[in-house]
Every structure is written in structure tokens, then in C-alpha cells.
Specification:
Elements (H helix, E strand, L loop, with lengths): L11 E5 L4 H12 L3 E6 L2 H14 L5 E5 L5 H15 L4 E4 L14 H29 L2 E6 L12 H20 L5 E8 L5 H14 L3 H10 L9 H12 L10 E4 L6
Parallel strand pairs: 1-2, 1-4, 2-3, 4-5, 5-6, 6-7
């Protein structure tokens, strides 16, 4: 079955962090599969631009934009309530929003560490809470968390980010077991370095702190992938759609690495 089969026709999919990068690619892929999509972000202008672009590319589908700070439970509740009013109960939640930051541990303060946990783990927890009640009532649902290889292994200088993504992995595994007999699956996609604005920021940090050129910095990141390349957002998007298909009902509690073999 392919996305062109409209296998998810009419289903309401919520994608967080969808104004750019991986989230935007995921929203595009779900629309191509026939779903109606709510895109969630905290930058109104970027969100509006993304929404207009998606609607233009998928004229028969419905795209709803929801503005929210995903570390704020009240904003999340309001955003999800409005999304349900607009497009119906949420059938699929893709927790893609997150943030990274590079700081040597000796210089890392509590504010940075807390911000990494909030942006990556707390946001995932709060969004799961926003949909789980309706999914349990419907005895159906898919939750897909975009974690990272940083949730499967350690990387130097990003202890806060790794801690946040490891928390997402732990939450995914535990929740998957809790809902295993309730018609709901919970999985995580764990990408390596992806060609996104977040990676552009990582390159900038490497250039500033090491004196390497931008080309050298990008090569250093690509070198972590045994295929010697950056993963593309469409690769993450294709896996997200696959996990939402009816045929993926037996896939639950899995951490699916898309990293060219880095974590093999």
C-alpha cells in the first residue's frame, strides 16, 4: 500500500513542530495519504506560511493551524480542543517538536538542562495527555514520537538534549505497554542528523567553537552516518505514515532508527 492509495483518508492527524523541517515533511506526507492535518507551532508567521503551502499542494485536504507553546499545558489544551472542533477526534499524533543545544557539561546550568527536558520530553508528555483520553474511548489511535539517536546513545556536549530524548524513549516504551490491549500503538522514530534548520544551527555552533569551515562541519556530521550523508526529512515522514497505517497495528513500543546504521 502506498501513500497514493489515500489509506488514511479523512483521519485527523496532529503534527507538532510542523512549520518547517521534519514536521513540515511529515504533515505533507500525511496529507498525501488522504488525512486532514493540524499543524502545531509557536511561530505564527512560520505556521501560516507552512499552512498556506500545504493547502496549496493538497487542495482537497483540510489543513488547520494551531498556535501553542508546547511546554504550556493550558495552551496545548486550547489548541487541541480547537483542532478537534475543526477536524474531529485525533486519530494520529506525531510529537515532532523539540529543541537542541550544545553546551559543555561543566558550563551547563540548570536553566539549559531544564529547557532541554521541557522542549523535548515535557512537550511530548503534555501532547500525549491531550489525546489519550479520546483514543482510549475510541479504542483506536496512533502516537508517533520523533526522538533521536540521542535517545539511544550519548553524544558529547549535548547532555541536556540526550537526557530529553532518552526521556522520550522511556515514555514511548512505557505508554506503549500500558495501551497495548486498547487499540492504540505508541512508537518512536529516532533519526540521526537530518537535513533541517536544527542541523544548520548545529553546523553554525561547530564553526563558531572549532574554527572549522561550514563544509567541514557538515562533513563531520555526515561522517557519523555510515552512509556518509545527512538523512532527509522525507525519510522520516515516510516512516511516520507507515506507522499510522492499519497494517502497522502490530508495531508497538519500538524505537526505529533512521541513521544509516549508526546505532547498529
Amino acid at each position: 500500500m502506498t501513500q497514493d492509495d489515500k489509506a488514511l483518508a479523512g483521519q485527523h492527524v496532529v503534527v507538532t513542530g510542523a512549520a518547517q523541517g521534519i514536521g513540515l515533511a511529515i504533515a505533507d506526507a500525511f496529507l498525501a495519504a488522504g488525512a486532514n492535518v493540524t499543524i502545531v507551532g509557536r511561530d505564527q508567521q512560520k505556521l501560516a506560511t507552512a499552512g498556506a503551502s500545504l493547502q496549496a499542494d493538497h487542495g482537497t485536504a483540510r489543513v488547520h493551524e494551531a498556535l501553542a507553546d508546547l511546554t504550556d499545558a493550558d495552551q496545548i489544551a486550547a489548541a487541541f480542543a480547537a483542532a478537534v472542533t475543526e477536524l474531529g477526534p485525533v486519530a494520529v499524533l506525531v510529537n515532532n517538536a523539540g529543541a537542541s543545544g550544545s553546551v559543555p557539561f561543566a558550563k551547563m546550568d540548570q536553566a539549559h538542562f531544564g529547557a532541554m527536558l521541557d522542549a523535548n520530553a515535557l512537550s511530548t508528555f503534555l501532547c500525549c495527555k491531550a489525546v489519550i483520553g479520546d483514543m482510549l474511548a475510541a479504542k483506536s489511535g496512533r502516537i508517533i514520537n520523533v526522538a533521536s539517536t540521542a535517545g539511544l546513545k550519548g553524544y558529547a556536549y549535548v547532555a541536556g538534549y540526550c537526557a530529553g530524548k532518552h526521556a522520550v524513549v522511556g515514555l514511548t516504551r512505557s505508554l506503549a505497554l500500558e495501551v497495548a490491549r486498547k487499540g492504540i500503538t505508541v512508537n518512536a522514530i529516532c533519526p540521526g542528523f537530518v537535513e533541517t534548520p536544527m542541523t544548520v544551527e548545529s553546523v553554525r555552533n561547530i564553526v563558531e567553537k572549532t574554527g572549522r569551515t561550514e563544509e567541514q562541519a557538515r562533513a563531520d556530521l555526515a561522517a557519523m552516518n555510515p552512509q556518509k550523508r545527512l538523512v532527509q526529512p522525507v525519510e522520516i515522514a515516510a516512516m511516520a505514515v507507515q506507522l499510522a497505517l492499519p497494517t502497522a497495528g502490530g508495531i508497538n513500543g519500538q524505537m526505529i532508527a533512521i541513521d544509516g546504521g549508526e546505532t547498529a
